[in-house]
Amino acid sequence: MPILSEKVAINIRFSEVDSLLIVWHGHYLKYFEDAREAFGRKYGLGYLEMYAQGFVTPIVNIHCEYKAPLAYGDEAIAEITYRDSKAAKIEMEYKITNARTGALLATGYSTQVFLDRAKSELQLIIPAFFAEWKEKWGIE
Amino acid sequence: MPILSEKVAINIRFSEVDSLLIVWHGHYLKYFEDAREAFGRKYGLGYLEMYAQGFVTPIVNIHCEYKAPLAYGDEAIAEITYRDSKAAKIEMEYKITNARTGALLATGYSTQVFLDRAKSELQLIIPAFFAEWKEKWGIE
Amino acid sequence: MPILSEKVAINIRFSEVDSLLIVWHGHYLKYFEDAREAFGRKYGLGYLEMYAQGFVTPIVNIHCEYKAPLAYGDEAIAEITYRDSKAAKIEMEYKITNARTGALLATGYSTQVFLDRAKSELQLIIPAFFAEWKEKWGIE
Amino acid sequence: MPILSEKVAINIRFSEVDSLLIVWHGHYLKYFEDAREAFGRKYGLGYLEMYAQGFVTPIVNIHCEYKAPLAYGDEAIAEITYRDSKAAKIEMEYKITNARTGALLATGYSTQVFLDRAKSELQLIIPAFFAEWKEKWGIE
């Protein structure tokens, strides 16, 4: 099975650095989302595309492990990798690394489900458009 | 003309304090909004109420003057005062003060306009519901 | 062993609601922190107190499960419960509930470690002040 | 006098779009800061450089005028221009434009002062390093 992944440079904002002089832990969820959006653009799985198909895909769980801090001025990379599930879910894994040294700074994962946007109904079966998406990228 | 105003205690979050150990300037706009929402609840001029009337009221300008910093652990108050305008606008003034000493920490103002939510049209004439709201509170 | 816990009312800001009309998932980490800070105030375990003891306690992992969404105007409660660990760690569990119905909206947990603030050294042994804190509250 | 300016592409995050489907007004201050940081990198006037010179430069006022909204998926540019002042201040002007059409979406300005980082004293006279900076870039 092919590995679908994408990398983005993280834009560490001054306002994201806390009084301990490191990026506040909650902001990593924005970096994960930056990566998820870049993944969506690369593989045709963005919010707007899924919305056009009639679905929204809320996050139902998210996890982050912090290995080493990020400081203002650091250059870092967020990497996202699709992890296939048989269920009607989108599972992603994340890595934050130092852009220069390659050192691992954080890891994480998230799970999204499919909601019918008209009826707000949870989809227990994989939506047709997502099955096609998997097929297109050689996943099954 | 009566003075319409409201005060709220500011909830300074750890994540809002930057690497200079003071609240990052941009967060004050959240405190202004906390005050605006409290004003809306007190005087019946909240987002949801205006939305129910068919209008959204986007901010078209905002200004903040910073007099003295806020630190983590500080107790502060955001005060909002309605400033009447003859135009189809909502104008507000803000003050942030130290809850214990009363010292003035910041001032500001904002202007909102009325958009017809169905047609996204700017309202040049004061909407009827807002004229009634003014009358109810003895303005003019 | 006594259960140490605290509850806080969540202040859902307009700016925290996303384009799907629900609170953006990442903001829950702020609500968890609101709860953690309230816990710190109640039990004498705040950032500033630990800092005064010579320690900082960065988050090393955090997790959130989303059960039902939060909307603008909702009233919700964040509850935090201390979960004792034999290791030199602070472990917390979180629950977000609907303030009116009591319905469970989200759960989560976090782990913090102790760093010597002067030397940035990870503390493998429970700091003396934290052992005393446990004793004071009847843990163990 | 030469015009010192810089442009950056704005990274509009999903989490920055509010329930009215437009970027929440307060986030523009982050975009202004993105521009200010890019300016700092281009012209050698970054936070870290000024800090190394012994100064911090807090924002003492900021203003934003909103002309047209930003939506998720929009491509926009933040442009910053240095506006010289005889006083011991850093004054900046900002413009947000649509990257494709060039349409003006917002304007703004900010003022920063110099604080001696050791003594937290406001500098009434232009610091030597800033006078040199001006000379280097041909400003008077």
Q: How would you concisely characterize the structure shown here?
A:
By secondary structure, chain A is an alpha+beta fold. Chain A is 22% helix and 34% strand.
Write structural notes for this entry.
Four copies of one chain form a homotetramer. Chain A is α+β, with helices and mostly antiparallel strands and 140 residues long. Chain A has a single domain (5-136), classed as Thiol Ester Dehydrase, Chain A. Helices cover 22% and strands 34% of the residues of chain A. Chain A has helices spanning 28-43, 47-52, 128-136, and strands spanning 5-9, 55-56, 59-66, 76-83, 89-98, 104-113, 115-116, 121-122. In chain A, the strands form two sheets. In chain A, strands 1-4-5-6-3 form a five-stranded antiparallel β-sheet, covered by helices on one side. In chain A, strands 2-7-8 form a three-stranded antiparallel β-sheet. Chains in contact: A-B, A-C, A-D, B-C, B-D, C-D. The A-C interface holds A 20, 22, 25-26, 29-30, 33, 56, 58-66, 69 and C 20, 22, 25-26, 29-30, 33, 56, 58-66, 69.
